[in-house]
Amino acid sequence: MRVRFPLPAHLALQGYQIGGDEGYGHQLMDRMQEERFYLQRFNNGSPARRSEVYANLSAEWWSTIGQMIERRQIIIPNDEKLVAQLTSRRKLYDSKGREKLESKADLAARGVESPDRADALIGAIVLGQAKADWKRSRGDLKRN
Fold first, then answer.
1. Which residues, other chains included, contact 25 with Cβ-Cβ below 8 Å and sequence gap of 6+?
2. Which residues pair with 118 in a beta bridge?
3. Which of these, 23, 45, 43, 19, lies nearest to 33 by C-alpha position?
4. CB proximity list for 14: less than 8 A, separation 6 or greater
5. What is the pLDDT of residue 66?
């Protein structure tokens, strides 16, 4: 499938970092790149920076942002759906003892909706303007 619509100029997203290079996000990012958006592609299944602790990048981001919310380093919107999504995904462990997230298929099997808002919030924090603050506040997870 190809995205066939022109992206609205009034969004003024050029220069922003946008990720999510998997599934439909890959096609959308290809189209945005054609429109000369600056993109920072990532795949949630990529290896974590701290691969001895986290099974993949998504588990690392969810855990790190969760800790920052608990410590009140990040104040999230008062949104019941967002809070439900952030708190309904189970933390699991792989055979090496590393943290991983409950899959979206397992969430669906439990009757829990996909955590799209939570994913969007976490992605915005990690890739957005808060990235510099995150680096400073999380010295143990410092990014290069």
1. 19
2. none
3. 19
4. 36, 37, 38
5. 93
